[in-house]
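Fold this sequence, please.
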Amino acid sequence: MSRLLLLPVSVLALAFPLMGEENIPAAPAPTASAAPAPENRTQPGDEDPFEGIVRIEASFLQPDYRTPWQGGRPSNGSGTGWLVGKNRFVTNAHVVSNSTKLVIRTTNDPEPYEARILFIAHDCDLAMIEAVDPKPFEKIKPLEIDGIPKLNTEVIAVGYPIGGDRVSVTRGVVSRIDFQSYSHSGIDQHLAIQVDAAINPGNSGGPVLQNGKVVGVAFQGYSGSVAQNVGYMIPVPVLNRFLKDVEDGSYDHYMDLAITDFPIENPAQIKALGLEDNGQGVMVANVDSASCAAGLVEVGDVILALDGSPVYTNGLIRVDGELMDMNEVVERKFAGDKIKVDLLRKGEKKTVELSLKRYLPYLTLGESYDERPKYVLYAGMLFQPMNRNLMEAHSIRDPLVNYVFDNYMTKEIFKDRPEVVILTAILPDEVNSYLQGYQHSIVDEVNGVKIKTLKDVSEALKKKDGDGKFVVVKLLEKNRPLVLKRDLADAAHPVIMQKYDVREASFLGEP
Protein backbone atom coordinates (compact mmCIF):
# COMPACT_ATOMS: atom_id res chain seq x y z
CA MET A 1 0.00 0.00 0.00
CA SER A 2 1.11 3.58 -0.40
CA ARG A 3 3.08 3.97 2.81
CA LEU A 4 6.59 5.32 3.30
CA LEU A 5 7.70 1.83 4.24
CA LEU A 6 8.30 0.92 0.63
CA LEU A 7 10.34 2.12 -2.29
CA PRO A 8 8.60 4.73 -4.46
CA VAL A 9 8.13 4.08 -8.14
CA SER A 10 10.34 6.13 -10.46
CA VAL A 11 8.52 7.62 -13.45
CA LEU A 12 10.34 6.97 -16.71
CA ALA A 13 10.09 9.56 -19.50
CA LEU A 14 9.14 7.80 -22.75
CA ALA A 15 9.89 9.73 -25.96
CA PHE A 16 7.20 9.32 -28.60
CA PRO A 17 7.56 10.74 -32.12
CA LEU A 18 5.28 13.67 -32.88
CA MET A 19 2.54 13.40 -35.48
CA GLY A 20 3.77 14.33 -38.97
CA GLU A 21 7.44 13.62 -38.35
CA GLU A 22 9.31 12.20 -41.32
CA ASN A 23 11.96 9.49 -41.62
CA ILE A 24 10.27 7.27 -39.10
CA PRO A 25 11.97 3.87 -39.41
CA ALA A 26 9.76 0.95 -40.30
CA ALA A 27 9.27 -1.83 -37.78
CA PRO A 28 11.45 -4.87 -38.53
CA ALA A 29 9.71 -7.79 -40.13
CA PRO A 30 8.86 -10.52 -37.67
CA THR A 31 10.91 -13.67 -37.80
CA ALA A 32 10.17 -17.18 -36.67
CA SER A 33 12.63 -16.87 -33.84
CA ALA A 34 10.66 -13.91 -32.40
CA ALA A 35 7.69 -16.08 -31.47
CA PRO A 36 7.62 -17.08 -27.81
CA ALA A 37 8.16 -20.69 -26.95
CA PRO A 38 4.92 -22.62 -26.40
CA GLU A 39 5.85 -23.40 -22.80
CA ASN A 40 6.00 -19.63 -22.08
CA ARG A 41 2.48 -19.01 -23.37
CA THR A 42 -0.68 -19.16 -21.28
CA GLN A 43 -2.71 -22.11 -22.51
CA PRO A 44 -6.47 -22.57 -22.04
CA GLY A 45 -7.12 -24.58 -18.91
CA ASP A 46 -3.71 -23.78 -17.34
CA GLU A 47 -3.72 -23.56 -13.54
CA ASP A 48 -3.03 -20.04 -12.31
CA PRO A 49 0.04 -20.27 -10.02
CA PHE A 50 -0.89 -16.94 -8.41
CA GLU A 51 -4.56 -17.63 -7.77
CA GLY A 52 -4.02 -17.68 -4.02
CA ILE A 53 -2.48 -14.19 -4.08
CA VAL A 54 -5.07 -11.46 -3.52
CA ARG A 55 -5.27 -7.69 -3.74
CA ILE A 56 -6.36 -6.07 -0.45
CA GLU A 57 -8.14 -2.72 -0.57
CA ALA A 58 -8.55 -0.88 2.70
CA SER A 59 -10.34 2.19 4.01
CA PHE A 60 -8.68 3.79 7.02
CA LEU A 61 -9.45 6.20 9.80
CA GLN A 62 -6.11 7.59 10.95
CA PRO A 63 -6.19 8.80 14.60
CA ASP A 64 -5.53 12.53 14.97
CA TYR A 65 -3.31 13.21 17.96
CA ARG A 66 -3.55 16.98 17.48
CA THR A 67 -7.33 16.98 17.86
CA PRO A 68 -7.90 13.66 19.66
CA TRP A 69 -11.62 14.30 20.22
CA GLN A 70 -12.24 13.97 16.50
CA GLY A 71 -12.83 10.63 14.81
CA GLY A 72 -9.72 10.81 12.67
CA ARG A 73 -8.68 11.40 9.06
CA PRO A 74 -10.15 9.06 6.40
CA SER A 75 -7.84 7.61 3.76
CA ASN A 76 -7.48 4.50 1.66
CA GLY A 77 -4.79 2.25 0.24
CA SER A 78 -4.07 -1.19 -1.10
CA GLY A 79 -1.68 -4.06 -0.53
CA THR A 80 -1.28 -7.76 -1.13
CA GLY A 81 -2.15 -10.92 0.76
CA TRP A 82 -1.93 -14.66 0.13
CA LEU A 83 -3.80 -17.78 1.15
CA VAL A 84 -2.00 -19.73 3.87
CA GLY A 85 -4.87 -22.02 4.94
CA LYS A 86 -8.61 -22.47 4.70
CA ASN A 87 -9.95 -18.91 4.39
CA ARG A 88 -6.81 -17.59 6.07
CA PHE A 89 -4.85 -14.85 4.30
CA VAL A 90 -1.50 -13.47 5.47
CA THR A 91 -0.53 -9.85 4.85
CA ASN A 92 1.42 -7.07 6.55
CA ALA A 93 0.06 -5.38 9.66
CA HIS A 94 0.64 -1.99 8.05
CA VAL A 95 -1.67 -2.93 5.18
CA VAL A 96 -4.68 -3.28 7.50
CA SER A 97 -3.82 -1.16 10.57
CA ASN A 98 -6.43 1.47 11.48
CA SER A 99 -8.72 0.03 8.81
CA THR A 100 -12.49 0.46 8.89
CA LYS A 101 -13.24 -1.67 5.83
CA LEU A 102 -11.36 -4.38 3.92
CA VAL A 103 -12.11 -6.04 0.59
CA ILE A 104 -10.08 -8.62 -1.32
CA ARG A 105 -9.95 -9.50 -5.00
CA THR A 106 -8.30 -12.44 -6.77
CA THR A 107 -6.42 -12.41 -10.06
CA ASN A 108 -9.29 -14.02 -11.98
CA ASP A 109 -12.32 -12.53 -10.25
CA PRO A 110 -13.05 -8.78 -10.34
CA GLU A 111 -15.71 -9.16 -7.64
CA PRO A 112 -14.71 -7.50 -4.34
CA TYR A 113 -15.22 -9.67 -1.27
CA GLU A 114 -15.49 -8.18 2.20
CA ALA A 115 -12.82 -9.27 4.67
CA ARG A 116 -12.02 -8.80 8.36
CA ILE A 117 -8.96 -8.96 10.60
CA LEU A 118 -8.44 -12.08 12.69
CA PHE A 119 -5.02 -11.37 14.21
CA ILE A 120 -2.60 -8.50 13.94
CA ALA A 121 1.02 -8.39 15.13
CA HIS A 122 2.37 -4.85 15.06
CA ASP A 123 5.70 -5.95 16.54
CA CYS A 124 6.54 -8.07 13.48
CA ASP A 125 4.34 -6.35 10.86
CA LEU A 126 2.16 -9.38 10.10
CA ALA A 127 -1.59 -9.90 10.09
CA MET A 128 -4.10 -12.61 9.26
CA ILE A 129 -7.45 -11.81 7.68
CA GLU A 130 -10.40 -13.86 6.46
CA ALA A 131 -13.15 -13.39 3.88
CA VAL A 132 -16.57 -12.82 5.41
CA ASP A 133 -17.96 -15.23 2.81
CA PRO A 134 -15.44 -18.09 2.41
CA LYS A 135 -17.22 -19.89 -0.46
CA PRO A 136 -15.46 -18.10 -3.37
CA PHE A 137 -12.09 -19.25 -1.99
CA GLU A 138 -12.89 -22.86 -1.10
CA LYS A 139 -11.28 -24.33 -4.23
CA ILE A 140 -8.17 -22.17 -4.18
CA LYS A 141 -5.01 -24.00 -3.15
CA PRO A 142 -3.03 -22.37 -0.28
CA LEU A 143 0.60 -21.50 -0.90
CA GLU A 144 3.28 -23.71 0.63
CA ILE A 145 5.86 -22.31 3.03
CA ASP A 146 9.52 -23.28 2.65
CA GLY A 147 12.56 -22.06 4.61
CA ILE A 148 15.30 -19.42 4.55
CA PRO A 149 16.74 -19.05 1.03
CA LYS A 150 20.50 -19.07 0.56
CA LEU A 151 22.49 -15.98 -0.34
CA ASN A 152 22.77 -15.18 -4.05
CA THR A 153 19.78 -17.35 -4.99
CA GLU A 154 16.92 -16.03 -7.10
CA VAL A 155 13.50 -15.16 -5.69
CA ILE A 156 10.39 -13.54 -7.14
CA ALA A 157 8.17 -10.96 -5.43
CA VAL A 158 4.49 -11.26 -6.37
CA GLY A 159 1.87 -8.65 -5.60
CA TYR A 160 -0.25 -5.73 -6.72
CA PRO A 161 2.06 -2.68 -6.70
CA ILE A 162 1.08 0.74 -7.99
CA GLY A 163 1.08 1.11 -11.74
CA GLY A 164 -1.71 -1.32 -12.59
CA ASP A 165 -4.52 -3.51 -11.31
CA ARG A 166 -3.17 -6.90 -12.38
CA VAL A 167 -0.74 -9.09 -10.48
CA SER A 168 2.93 -8.16 -10.90
CA VAL A 169 6.07 -10.32 -10.70
CA THR A 170 9.61 -9.02 -10.16
CA ARG A 171 12.83 -11.02 -9.82
CA GLY A 172 15.91 -10.53 -7.73
CA VAL A 173 18.50 -12.28 -5.62
CA VAL A 174 18.94 -12.70 -1.87
CA SER A 175 21.54 -10.11 -0.89
CA ARG A 176 21.72 -10.26 2.91
CA ILE A 177 20.25 -12.06 5.93
CA ASP A 178 20.49 -9.94 9.06
CA PHE A 179 18.67 -8.37 12.01
CA GLN A 180 16.88 -5.19 10.88
CA SER A 181 14.55 -2.59 12.35
CA TYR A 182 10.90 -3.12 11.44
CA SER A 183 9.67 0.35 10.53
CA HIS A 184 5.97 -0.35 11.19
CA SER A 185 6.45 -0.28 14.97
CA GLY A 186 9.50 1.96 14.84
CA ILE A 187 11.23 0.07 17.65
CA ASP A 188 11.21 -3.69 17.02
CA GLN A 189 14.09 -5.57 15.42
CA HIS A 190 13.85 -9.03 13.91
CA LEU A 191 15.49 -11.19 11.31
CA ALA A 192 14.96 -9.81 7.79
CA ILE A 193 16.16 -10.75 4.31
CA GLN A 194 17.38 -8.13 1.86
CA VAL A 195 16.61 -8.66 -1.83
CA ASP A 196 17.19 -6.60 -4.95
CA ALA A 197 13.81 -7.44 -6.47
CA ALA A 198 11.68 -4.33 -6.99
CA ILE A 199 9.35 -4.02 -3.98
CA ASN A 200 7.07 -1.05 -4.44
CA PRO A 201 4.03 0.41 -2.65
CA GLY A 202 1.29 -2.19 -3.03
CA ASN A 203 3.67 -5.16 -2.82
CA SER A 204 3.36 -5.05 0.96
CA GLY A 205 2.12 -8.36 2.34
CA GLY A 206 2.76 -10.25 -0.86
CA PRO A 207 4.69 -13.52 -0.93
CA VAL A 208 8.30 -13.80 -2.03
CA LEU A 209 8.65 -17.16 -3.77
CA GLN A 210 11.44 -19.58 -4.57
CA ASN A 211 10.67 -22.72 -6.55
CA GLY A 212 6.97 -21.95 -6.14
CA LYS A 213 7.08 -21.85 -2.31
CA VAL A 214 6.92 -18.94 0.10
CA VAL A 215 10.30 -17.93 1.53
CA GLY A 216 9.25 -14.51 2.82
CA VAL A 217 6.70 -11.68 2.95
CA ALA A 218 7.54 -8.37 1.25
CA PHE A 219 7.26 -5.48 3.69
CA GLN A 220 9.66 -2.54 3.49
CA GLY A 221 12.56 -0.92 1.70
CA TYR A 222 14.65 2.19 1.35
CA SER A 223 13.16 5.22 -0.38
CA GLY A 224 14.54 8.16 -2.30
CA SER A 225 18.29 8.51 -2.81
CA VAL A 226 19.29 6.44 0.25
CA ALA A 227 19.70 3.24 -1.75
CA GLN A 228 18.55 1.67 -4.99
CA ASN A 229 16.88 -1.73 -5.42
CA VAL A 230 17.02 -2.52 -1.71
CA GLY A 231 13.90 -4.20 -0.41
CA TYR A 232 13.24 -6.44 2.56
CA MET A 233 11.09 -9.46 3.25
CA ILE A 234 9.99 -11.00 6.52
CA PRO A 235 11.64 -14.46 6.61
CA VAL A 236 9.99 -17.79 7.31
CA PRO A 237 11.12 -18.09 11.00
CA VAL A 238 9.26 -14.85 11.83
CA LEU A 239 6.27 -15.90 9.72
CA ASN A 240 6.09 -19.37 11.28
CA ARG A 241 6.35 -17.93 14.77
CA PHE A 242 3.36 -15.66 14.07
CA LEU A 243 1.32 -18.57 12.67
CA LYS A 244 2.21 -20.73 15.68
CA ASP A 245 1.41 -17.95 18.17
CA VAL A 246 -2.14 -17.44 16.88
CA GLU A 247 -3.05 -21.14 16.89
CA ASP A 248 -4.61 -20.74 20.34
CA GLY A 249 -6.86 -17.91 19.14
CA SER A 250 -4.84 -14.94 20.37
CA TYR A 251 -1.54 -13.21 19.63
CA ASP A 252 0.80 -13.01 22.62
CA HIS A 253 3.54 -10.85 21.10
CA TYR A 254 7.32 -11.22 21.14
CA MET A 255 9.30 -11.80 24.31
CA ASP A 256 12.42 -9.83 25.23
CA LEU A 257 15.33 -10.33 27.61
CA ALA A 258 15.50 -6.51 28.01
CA ILE A 259 19.24 -6.50 28.63
CA THR A 260 21.97 -4.62 26.79
CA ASP A 261 25.39 -6.06 26.09
CA PHE A 262 28.68 -5.18 24.45
CA PRO A 263 31.38 -7.30 22.79
CA ILE A 264 34.50 -8.51 24.53
CA GLU A 265 37.26 -8.41 21.93
CA ASN A 266 40.13 -6.69 23.73
CA PRO A 267 42.83 -9.27 24.69
CA ALA A 268 43.58 -7.58 28.03
CA GLN A 269 39.88 -7.49 28.90
CA ILE A 270 39.50 -11.16 28.04
CA LYS A 271 42.38 -12.06 30.36
CA ALA A 272 41.18 -9.77 33.17
CA LEU A 273 37.73 -11.38 33.12
CA GLY A 274 39.21 -14.86 33.31
CA LEU A 275 37.73 -15.87 29.96
CA GLU A 276 39.11 -18.56 27.71
CA ASP A 277 40.58 -17.17 24.51
CA ASN A 278 38.01 -18.96 22.35
CA GLY A 279 36.09 -16.01 20.90
CA GLN A 280 33.11 -16.64 23.16
CA GLY A 281 31.15 -14.31 25.47
CA VAL A 282 29.51 -10.86 25.64
CA MET A 283 29.31 -8.64 28.72
CA VAL A 284 26.01 -7.49 30.20
CA ALA A 285 25.88 -3.68 30.31
CA ASN A 286 22.38 -3.21 31.72
CA VAL A 287 19.49 -5.29 33.04
CA ASP A 288 16.10 -3.62 33.08
CA SER A 289 14.28 -4.02 36.39
CA ALA A 290 11.06 -4.90 34.51
CA SER A 291 12.70 -7.64 32.45
CA CYS A 292 12.53 -11.38 32.95
CA ALA A 293 16.29 -11.33 33.64
CA ALA A 294 16.01 -8.97 36.64
CA GLY A 295 17.48 -10.55 39.76
CA LEU A 296 18.97 -13.45 37.80
CA VAL A 297 21.39 -11.75 35.42
CA GLU A 298 23.63 -8.97 36.71
CA VAL A 299 25.55 -6.10 35.16
CA GLY A 300 29.10 -7.33 34.52
CA ASP A 301 28.07 -10.94 33.87
CA VAL A 302 29.50 -12.49 30.72
CA ILE A 303 26.96 -14.47 28.71
CA LEU A 304 28.66 -17.56 27.31
CA ALA A 305 25.74 -19.50 25.80
CA LEU A 306 21.97 -19.48 25.33
CA ASP A 307 20.22 -22.85 25.46
CA GLY A 308 23.59 -24.50 25.01
CA SER A 309 24.56 -22.60 21.85
CA PRO A 310 27.79 -20.57 22.25
CA VAL A 311 27.48 -16.77 22.08
CA TYR A 312 30.46 -15.30 20.22
CA THR A 313 32.24 -12.12 21.26
CA ASN A 314 30.48 -10.11 18.54
CA GLY A 315 27.04 -11.08 19.90
CA LEU A 316 26.30 -13.65 17.21
CA ILE A 317 25.06 -17.19 17.71
CA ARG A 318 24.69 -20.07 15.28
CA VAL A 319 21.06 -20.96 14.52
CA ASP A 320 20.15 -23.52 11.86
CA GLY A 321 23.72 -23.41 10.61
CA GLU A 322 23.70 -19.61 10.14
CA LEU A 323 25.33 -16.93 12.31
CA MET A 324 22.64 -14.59 13.64
CA ASP A 325 22.14 -12.06 16.42
CA MET A 326 21.92 -13.91 19.74
CA ASN A 327 18.42 -12.50 20.26
CA GLU A 328 17.21 -14.87 17.53
CA VAL A 329 17.16 -17.64 20.18
CA VAL A 330 14.68 -15.59 22.21
CA GLU A 331 12.77 -14.52 19.08
CA ARG A 332 11.66 -18.07 18.36
CA LYS A 333 10.20 -18.65 21.82
CA PHE A 334 6.80 -17.77 23.29
CA ALA A 335 5.35 -16.36 26.51
CA GLY A 336 6.19 -18.58 29.47
CA ASP A 337 8.92 -20.51 27.63
CA LYS A 338 12.20 -21.08 29.46
CA ILE A 339 15.69 -20.20 28.29
CA LYS A 340 18.96 -21.34 29.88
CA VAL A 341 21.72 -18.78 30.14
CA ASP A 342 25.30 -19.93 30.78
CA LEU A 343 27.32 -17.06 32.20
CA LEU A 344 30.52 -16.15 33.97
CA ARG A 345 30.15 -14.08 37.13
CA LYS A 346 33.30 -12.88 38.94
CA GLY A 347 35.28 -15.78 37.52
CA GLU A 348 32.68 -18.43 38.37
CA LYS A 349 30.52 -20.18 35.78
CA LYS A 350 26.79 -20.29 36.46
CA THR A 351 23.61 -21.36 34.66
CA VAL A 352 20.34 -19.52 35.23
CA GLU A 353 16.92 -20.26 33.77
CA LEU A 354 14.71 -17.39 32.68
CA SER A 355 10.94 -17.52 32.17
CA LEU A 356 10.23 -15.30 29.18
CA LYS A 357 7.63 -12.54 29.29
CA ARG A 358 6.66 -9.50 27.28
CA TYR A 359 8.52 -6.29 28.02
CA LEU A 360 5.82 -3.62 28.28
CA PRO A 361 7.64 -0.28 28.88
CA TYR A 362 8.95 -0.19 25.32
CA LEU A 363 5.41 0.17 23.93
CA THR A 364 5.53 3.90 24.74
CA LEU A 365 8.42 4.31 22.30
CA GLY A 366 6.76 2.47 19.41
CA GLU A 367 4.07 3.49 16.95
CA SER A 368 0.51 2.87 18.15
CA TYR A 369 -2.28 1.56 15.94
CA ASP A 370 -5.93 0.60 16.15
CA GLU A 371 -6.55 2.66 19.26
CA ARG A 372 -8.14 5.99 20.03
CA PRO A 373 -5.83 8.70 21.44
CA LYS A 374 -6.32 9.44 25.13
CA TYR A 375 -6.69 13.01 26.40
CA VAL A 376 -8.11 15.36 29.02
CA LEU A 377 -9.30 18.85 28.05
CA TYR A 378 -10.02 21.56 30.61
CA ALA A 379 -10.45 25.29 30.00
CA GLY A 380 -8.62 24.88 26.68
CA MET A 381 -5.65 23.01 28.21
CA LEU A 382 -5.03 19.71 26.40
CA PHE A 383 -3.29 16.99 28.42
CA GLN A 384 -2.08 13.81 26.68
CA PRO A 385 0.16 10.84 27.59
CA MET A 386 3.53 10.75 25.85
CA ASN A 387 4.09 8.26 23.04
CA ARG A 388 5.74 8.21 19.62
CA ASN A 389 2.57 9.15 17.75
CA LEU A 390 2.07 12.17 20.00
CA MET A 391 5.67 13.35 19.65
CA GLU A 392 5.44 13.21 15.87
CA ALA A 393 1.97 14.75 15.57
CA HIS A 394 2.81 17.78 17.74
CA SER A 395 6.43 18.06 16.50
CA ILE A 396 7.60 18.39 20.10
CA ARG A 397 11.12 19.83 20.31
CA ASP A 398 11.28 20.69 24.02
CA PRO A 399 14.70 19.41 25.23
CA LEU A 400 13.36 17.99 28.51
CA VAL A 401 10.48 16.14 26.83
CA ASN A 402 12.84 14.70 24.23
CA TYR A 403 15.28 13.63 26.94
CA VAL A 404 12.51 11.85 28.86
CA PHE A 405 11.28 10.15 25.68
CA ASP A 406 14.75 9.00 24.65
CA ASN A 407 15.61 7.72 28.13
CA TYR A 408 12.21 6.38 29.14
CA MET A 409 13.51 2.81 29.29
CA THR A 410 17.23 3.19 29.96
CA LYS A 411 16.68 5.53 32.93
CA GLU A 412 13.59 3.54 33.98
CA ILE A 413 11.45 6.66 34.05
CA PHE A 414 8.41 4.40 33.67
CA LYS A 415 8.76 3.35 37.31
CA ASP A 416 7.88 6.84 38.59
CA ARG A 417 5.74 7.92 35.65
CA PRO A 418 3.89 5.02 33.99
CA GLU A 419 2.35 7.67 31.74
CA VAL A 420 4.34 10.85 31.16
CA VAL A 421 1.62 13.48 30.74
CA ILE A 422 2.32 16.44 28.47
CA LEU A 423 0.45 19.72 28.14
CA THR A 424 0.39 19.48 24.35
CA ALA A 425 -1.77 22.47 23.41
CA ILE A 426 -3.80 25.38 24.70
CA LEU A 427 -6.92 26.19 22.70
CA PRO A 428 -6.95 30.02 22.67
CA ASP A 429 -9.56 31.73 24.81
CA GLU A 430 -9.67 34.78 27.04
CA VAL A 431 -9.43 32.60 30.16
CA ASN A 432 -6.07 31.14 29.14
CA SER A 433 -4.48 34.21 27.59
CA TYR A 434 -0.66 34.45 27.60
CA LEU A 435 -0.24 30.75 28.47
CA GLN A 436 0.96 29.52 25.06
CA GLY A 437 4.54 29.36 26.32
CA TYR A 438 3.62 26.49 28.64
CA GLN A 439 2.80 24.16 25.74
CA HIS A 440 4.88 20.98 25.18
CA SER A 441 5.81 20.73 28.87
CA ILE A 442 5.66 17.71 31.18
CA VAL A 443 2.97 17.98 33.86
CA ASP A 444 4.38 17.36 37.32
CA GLU A 445 1.52 18.37 39.64
CA VAL A 446 -2.09 19.54 39.37
CA ASN A 447 -3.66 21.13 42.45
CA GLY A 448 -1.01 19.53 44.66
CA VAL A 449 -1.48 16.02 43.22
CA LYS A 450 1.60 14.29 41.77
CA ILE A 451 0.83 13.23 38.18
CA LYS A 452 1.85 9.70 37.22
CA THR A 453 -0.94 8.88 34.75
CA LEU A 454 -3.52 10.74 32.70
CA LYS A 455 -6.20 9.56 35.10
CA ASP A 456 -4.41 11.47 37.84
CA VAL A 457 -4.92 14.69 35.84
CA SER A 458 -8.63 14.01 35.47
CA GLU A 459 -9.03 13.45 39.21
CA ALA A 460 -6.74 16.31 40.27
CA LEU A 461 -8.63 18.90 38.23
CA LYS A 462 -11.68 18.20 40.40
CA LYS A 463 -9.67 18.71 43.61
CA LYS A 464 -9.79 22.10 45.23
CA ASP A 465 -6.37 22.84 46.68
CA GLY A 466 -6.12 25.48 49.42
CA ASP A 467 -9.12 27.80 49.27
CA GLY A 468 -10.15 26.23 45.96
CA LYS A 469 -10.19 29.53 44.07
CA PHE A 470 -7.42 28.57 41.66
CA VAL A 471 -6.38 25.71 39.40
CA VAL A 472 -2.61 25.30 39.70
CA VAL A 473 -0.57 23.25 37.21
CA LYS A 474 3.13 22.74 37.97
CA LEU A 475 5.32 21.70 35.07
CA LEU A 476 8.50 19.64 35.41
CA GLU A 477 11.60 21.84 35.75
CA LYS A 478 9.60 24.99 35.02
CA ASN A 479 9.87 27.56 37.79
CA ARG A 480 6.54 29.30 37.14
CA PRO A 481 3.29 27.42 37.72
CA LEU A 482 0.33 27.79 35.39
CA VAL A 483 -2.57 29.34 37.32
CA LEU A 484 -6.22 29.86 36.35
CA LYS A 485 -9.07 31.27 38.40
CA ARG A 486 -11.33 28.29 38.97
CA ASP A 487 -14.67 30.07 38.61
CA LEU A 488 -13.62 31.66 35.32
CA ALA A 489 -12.10 28.40 34.04
CA ASP A 490 -15.21 26.39 34.97
CA ALA A 491 -17.42 28.93 33.18
CA ALA A 492 -15.20 29.05 30.08
CA HIS A 493 -14.80 25.27 29.77
CA PRO A 494 -18.18 24.45 28.11
CA VAL A 495 -17.89 27.54 25.90
CA ILE A 496 -14.45 26.41 24.66
CA MET A 497 -15.74 22.89 24.03
CA GLN A 498 -18.57 24.27 21.92
CA LYS A 499 -16.27 26.68 20.06
CA TYR A 500 -13.85 23.91 19.06
CA ASP A 501 -16.55 21.27 18.51
CA VAL A 502 -15.32 19.05 21.35
CA ARG A 503 -18.01 16.57 22.33
CA GLU A 504 -16.16 14.80 25.16
CA ALA A 505 -13.97 16.55 27.70
CA SER A 506 -11.82 13.45 28.12
CA PHE A 507 -11.07 9.96 26.93
CA LEU A 508 -9.04 7.87 29.38
CA GLY A 509 -9.00 4.66 27.34
CA GLU A 510 -11.26 1.71 26.88
CA PRO A 511 -12.63 0.31 30.19
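Residues 486-499 form the longest helix (14 residues). The chain has a mean pLDDT of 88.
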